[in-house]
């Protein structure tokens, strides 16, 4: 590698992806075989940026050249920036060099569009193939599929990558049209659909024939930019719900828009990043995926946006006080999970325990391992009201006598 | 009071437990060999590590505890918390005295203390899997220096063996002055002096010619993924406690350039 050049490219091409939030490694099942390099499984965060996000993957663009002109993107054609591109071999060497030093769990590779979708996609595929076949690399690989890429290339990508994603970027078709005039909603949805079907087919086949190769074992995901356009949380979560239900997505990521240009279609530079909103959306997303909530219970026409002051579960509870207090000794898992302050792990523990003994206040505290009041939602004590959003579990550390932290 | 002097190993401690019962020793205090010179106690019992005795204690414990509870004893031992030998002995004593499995009885301090200590080791071993940073030498050895509070090398060995099965590596614990070394076949424990603050010219001497380049790449990468407007130092330190920084490539300023 010509070191100076690579150093410069890395700075530019890593910088361009930093607003992409899908940085974590999803659950995959690739094992180290024949004394190769690496495995995927636990998903380890190797470092944490100064803003507190975890770094587990080498997240880069193959290139920031792009023939498109999406207003929200640094790589857009009309932006006057320095253009660079990695070679296939450079990306391979970087990934392996970083992985062997235990800096990363794998690679997250995205790209601007060089010439056309297939030309770009073909290079991405060459990189994954080289990593898997020549380097015998079993670490995690997340590949961004280029909208409009052909099915043959998507199929190859799926055979070597752990996760694939096609970003919708905008929560609605209108917004996409407004900000990404060259992009087509269809070009995003079509590959998603194709990948969904392939993933299901391979899984089915794997059941009857264990020799069936892996196909995107960590599934597919997508990302939406939040706060660049006018959509409300109901539209955003509705879209997410569509991806979970219709596209069988593993994850939908929400990325608070960081203003980067003076384009008057977009929030002006200096507009704060909607971080709390982003966080609330993730919380709501969890409620839908893990707690059995329906989108309509979290946001509705009468209240299309999430409350920024309280988390969505507490918000739901306050709107549904008639369901409380809950007696956890008679309630089922579904309902226990819905009590603010009880996570689904604690809820499961409670249900398991209930088989043996009545849950008293003391036992309850043992299970939850923190003493903050959520009694208002339970049947133990007299109800009392919150003044503010309770800070759950803040005392965890102090009851830990000899923690060395 | 009886001072039980043992060699500081897990096996040694298990032997000691056996002998406490064997000789019906009372009012015990544990001491590791090297610090026992100060003979504050008139009564000292010297333990010679004995595999057979250790195994008998282990077998007995295995029958009284779940797999998880059994492992917790080892994890707690590795925490190296002050007085952990006594804390563990009280736990074992309770386990032996009770006809039923006691590990869920968290109302007893004997039990909860062990659980907390084990948790500490578990947490740190998890972090070590993340925070080991290998450097490559001229003769193709990937080496890393760590300095954990708990003695975690024995429990992270398998993880690294699985993951890096095609490269030779050494992880060296600079606090305890020993390392684990993988030679492409097996992992062995090696004792050695390893100068952790060796001069940069010495490191340049032993390191592969690309090593510094990769370290700088990683440092630059780490800087360029940061979003300045979202800076959150408290969160950063919570995830990456300062005590680990001295061995984290990305946290060591590049001395040569810039
Ligand atoms: S196609 Fe992708 S890289 Fe190109 S401008 Fe749009 S978002 Fe940016």
Biggest interface goes to: A-B, 50 and 54 residues
User: Which geometry of chain A do the CA atoms define?
Assistant: globular
By helix and strand content of chain A, what is the structural category? Answer: alpha/beta
Biggest β-sheet: strands ordered side by side in the sheet of chain A: 3-4-5-6-7-8
CA-based gyration radius of chain A: 23 Å
Work out the helicity level of chain B: 40-55%
Count of alpha/pi helices of chain A? 13
Q: Provide the low-confidence segments of chain A as ranges.
A: 379-405
Please trace the helix and strand order of chain B, writing H or E for each element. EHEEHHHHEEHEEEHHH
Distance between the termini of chain B: 61 Å
Taken as a percent bin, the fraction of beta residues of chain B is 5-15%
How much is the radius of gyration of chain B in Å?
22 Å
**What characteristic shape of chain B results from the CA principal axes?**
elongated
Nearest-integer average pLDDT of chain B: 87
Percent strand of chain A:
5-15%
Q: Unreliable stretches of chain B, pLDDT < 50, 5 or more residues?
A: none
Annotation, overall tally of beta strands of chain A: 8
Tell me about the largest β-sheet of chain A. 6 strands, parallel
Characterization of the model:
The complex is a heterodimer of chains A (405) and B (258). Chain A has helices at residues 3-15, 88-100, 117-134, 151-160, 173-179, 185-208, 233-246, 275-290, 295-298, 312-319, 333-337, 344-354, 361-368, and strands spanning 47-48, 54-55, 57-61, 106-110, 140-144, 163-165, 220-226, 251-256. Chain A is an alpha/beta fold. Chain A has a 6-stranded parallel β-sheet with strand order 3-4-5-6-7-8. In chain A, helix 3 (117-134) links the parallel strand 4 and strand 5 (140-144). Chain A is globular, with a radius of gyration of 23 Å. Chain A starts with a helix and ends in a 37-residue tail after the last helix. In chain A, 42% of the residues are buried. Chain B has 258 residues and is an alpha/beta fold. The mean pLDDT of chain B is 87. Chain B has helices at 10-22, 51-64, 67-78, 84-97, 109-131, 153-163, 200-206, 211-224, 233-239, and strands at residues 2-6, 28-32, 44-46, 135-136, 141-146, 168-173, 178-182, 187-191. In chain B, the strands form 2 sheets. Chain B has a 5-stranded mixed β-sheet, with helices on one face. A 3-stranded parallel β-sheet of chain B has the order 2-1-3, covered by helices on one side. The complex binds iron/sulfur cluster (SF4). Iron/sulfur cluster (SF4) binds at residues 66, 68, 70, 73, 75-76, 112-113, 180 of chain A. Iron/sulfur cluster (SF4) is lined by residues 66, 68, 70, 73, 75-76, 112-113, 180 of chain A.
């Amino acid at each position: 590698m010509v070191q100076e050049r690579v150093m410069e490219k890395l700075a530019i091409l890593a910088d361009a992806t930093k607003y992409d939030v899908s940085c974590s490694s999803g659950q995959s099942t690739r094992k180290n075989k024949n004394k190769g390099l690496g495995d995927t499984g636990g998903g380890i965060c190797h470092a944490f940026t100064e803003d507190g996000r975890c770094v587990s993957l080498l997240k880069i663009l193959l290139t920031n050249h792009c023939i498109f002109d999406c207003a929200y993107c640094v790589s857009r054609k009309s932006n006057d920036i320095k253009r660079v591109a990695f070679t296939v071999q450079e990306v391979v060497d970087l990934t392996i060099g970083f992985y062997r030093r235990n800096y990363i769990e794998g690679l997250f590779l995205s790209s601007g569009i060089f010439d056309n979708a297939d030309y770009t996609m073909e290079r991405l595929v060459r990189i994954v193939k080289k990593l898997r076949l020549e380097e015998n690399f079993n670490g995690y690989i997340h590949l961004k599929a280029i909208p409009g890429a052909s099915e043959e290339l998507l199929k190859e990508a799926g055979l070597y990558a752990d996760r694939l994603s096609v970003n919708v970027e905008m929560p609605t078709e209108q917004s996409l049209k407004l900000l990404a005039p060259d992009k087509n909603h269809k070009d995003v949805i079509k590959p998603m659909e194709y990948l969904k079907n392939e993933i299901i087919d391979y899984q089915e086949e794997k059941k009857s024939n264990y020799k069936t190769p892996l196909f995107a074992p960590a599934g597919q995901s997508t990302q939406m930019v939040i706060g660049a356009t006018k959509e409300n949380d109901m539209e955003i979560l509705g879209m997410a719900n569509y991806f979970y239900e219709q596209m069988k997505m593993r994850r939908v990521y929400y990325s608070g828009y960081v203003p980067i240009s003076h384009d008057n279609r977009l929030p002006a530079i200096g507009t704060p990043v909607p971080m709390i909103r982003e966080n609330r959306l993730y919380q709501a997303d969890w409620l839908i995926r893990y707690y059995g909530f329906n989108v309509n219970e979290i946001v509705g026409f009468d209240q299309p946006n999430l409350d920024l002051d309280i988390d969505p579960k507490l918000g739901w509870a306050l709107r549904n006080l008639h369901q409380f207090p809950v007696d956890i000794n008679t309630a089922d898992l579904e309902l226990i999970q819905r009590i603010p302050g009880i996570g689904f792990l604690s809820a499961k523990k409670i249900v398991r325990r209930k088989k043996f003994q009545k849950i008293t206040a003391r036992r309850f505290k043992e299970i939850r391992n923190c003493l903050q009041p959520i009694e208002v939602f339970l049947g133990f004590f007299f109800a009392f009201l919150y003044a503010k959003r309770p800070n759950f579990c803040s005392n965890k550390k102090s009851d830990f006598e000899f923690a060395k932290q | 009071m009886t001072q039980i002097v043992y060699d500081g190993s897990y096996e040694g401690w298990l032997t000691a437990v056996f002998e406490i019962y064997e000789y019906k020793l009372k009012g015990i205090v544990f001491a590791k060999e090297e610090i026992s010179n100060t003979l504050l106690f008139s009564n000292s019992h010297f333990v010679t590590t004995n595999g057979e005795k250790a195994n008998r204690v282990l077998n007995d414990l295995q029958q009284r505890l779940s797999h998880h509870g059994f492992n917790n004893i080892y994890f707690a031992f590795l925490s190296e918390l002050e007085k952990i030998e006594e804390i563990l002995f009280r736990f074992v004593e309770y386990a032996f005295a009770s006809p039923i499995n006691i590990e869920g009885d968290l109302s007893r301090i004997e039990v909860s203390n062990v659980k907390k200590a084990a948790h500490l080791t578990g947490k740190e071993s998890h972090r070590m899997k993340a925070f080991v940073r290998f450097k490559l030498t001229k003769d193709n050895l990937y080496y890393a220096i760590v300095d954990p509070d708990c003695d975690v090398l024995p429990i992270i060995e398998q993880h690294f063996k699985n993951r890096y099965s095609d490269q030779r590596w050494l992880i060296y614990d600079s606090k305890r002055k020993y390392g684990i070394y993988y030679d492409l076949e097996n992992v062995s424990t090696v004792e050695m002096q390893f100068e952790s603050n060796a001069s940069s010219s010495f490191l340049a001497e032993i390191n592969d010619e690309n090593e510094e380049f990769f370290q700088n790449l990683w440092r630059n990468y780490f800087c360029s993924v940061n979003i300045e407007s979202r800076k959150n130092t408290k969160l950063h330190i919570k995830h990456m406690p300062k005590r680990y920084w001295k061995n984290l490539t990305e946290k060591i300023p590049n001395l040569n350039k810039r």
